[in-house]
Specification:
Layout lengths: L1 E4 L5 H10 L3 E4 L6 H8 L10 E4 L9 H12 L8 E5 L2 H11 L11 H17 L3 E4 L5 H12 L8 E8 L10 E4 L10 H4 L6 H8 L4 H21 L4 E8 L5 H15 L3 E6 L19
Parallel strand pairs: 1-3, 1-4, 2-3, 4-5, 6-8, 6-9, 7-8
Helix pairs in contact: 1-6, 3-5, 4-5
């Protein structure tokens, strides 16, 4: 797997996470050595091959975006390999903040404003984004959430079907760019205006019970399950390994969390492997529920 993208978007974090998943992770590998590294880690039979993840960006010796895409296309044609490209994106404002906090110059603009380097790099490598198998925007992700998404896409070993991530979010902070399906639940009764519920979250039973008194709640949940249910086997048939379903409300604290937890419980009951993330609160949902183990974390 090739890990690339904008400088500051999280390539180092991604490589550490992949290493924890069992990959041999190599950063800033000179591109002329790519073929040799692939050959050195290939086993005589597929079961003995070493899963490899290497990071490249504009600082890599011999880097050329078009050449990298060409090399990857060649690797994809090999029947003994599964070559994938992970592209990490991030909005300019977040990248500027990260460089300001770290007090490091941008590699594309060591003696110029950081934003100049970001613009130059985005222009130089934008073509790789179109060739990526997976694009993850890290702008609004915590390191924990980022690692969860990576594990969903790239965990090794046999898996019983597609992994599903159910994410709650606040519309004030924007729609998650990594979401495959988005539902807006701002039409439901809002506990924010009930003093004893305002300080709680949708993970609290009192809040969930209050939202459930909305006459449109149960019909909506029924339609939601009726919409998602038939899609899952179709995604399985297409070979999709990871699906992100996002549920949003105004503040991302009450309605979206309650509906996300309800949806996740239903998916688990249906035998699906589910993780829950509440992007814009400090609440953690049931992080993992594997359909083959029946255990939750």
């Amino acid at each position: 797997m090739v890990v690339t993208g904008l400088s500051g978007a999280g390539r180092g974090t991604a490589l550490h996470a992949l290493e924890d998943l069992g990959y041999v992770a190599v950063d800033n590998l000179p591109l002329p050595l790519l073929g040799e590294l692939v050959r050195s880690t290939a086993g005589s039979i597929p079961e003995t091959a070493v899963p490899l993840a290497f990071g490249v960006d504009t600082r890599t010796y011999g880097f050329d975006a078009q050449d990298l895409v060409r090399r990857l296309q060649q690797l994809r044609q090999r029947s003994d390999l599964m070559a994938r490209l992970l592209y990490l994106d991030c909005d300019t404002e977040t990248l500027q903040r990260r460089y300001t906090e770290s007090r490091r110059p941008h590699p594309m603009a060591p003696d110029r404003p950081v934003v100049d380097g970001i613009v130059d790099e985005r222009r130089q490598i934008s073509g790789m984004r179109d060739s990526a198998d997976v694009v993850i925007d890290t702008s609004a992700l915590s390191p924990h959430q980022f690692k969860q998404i990576l594990a969903g896409h790239f965990s090794l070993g046999d898996r019983a079907g597609m992994r599903i991530s159910v994410m709650s979010f606040s519309y004030r902070r924007g729609v998650p760019r990594e979401a495959d399906i988005v539902f807006d639940v701002r039409f439901l009764k809002n506990p924010h205006y009930v003093s004893e519920l305002k300080v709680l979250t949708g993970a609290d039973a009192a809040v969930a019970a209050y939202i459930a008194t909305d006459p449109e709640y149960e019909p909506f949940i029924s339609r939601l399950e009726g919409l998602i249910g038939p899609l899952l086997p179709r995604f399985d048939a297409e070979g999709k390994s990871y699906l992100t379903v996002a549920v949003g409300c105004t503040g991302g604290r009450h309605r979206s969390i309650a509906v996300a937890e309800r949806l996740a419980d239903w998916l688990r009951t249906a035998g699906r492997s589910v993780t829950v993330m509440h992007r814009d609160t400090n609440v953690r949902g049931n992080l993992v529920a594997n359909n083959d183990s029946g255990r939750g974390a």
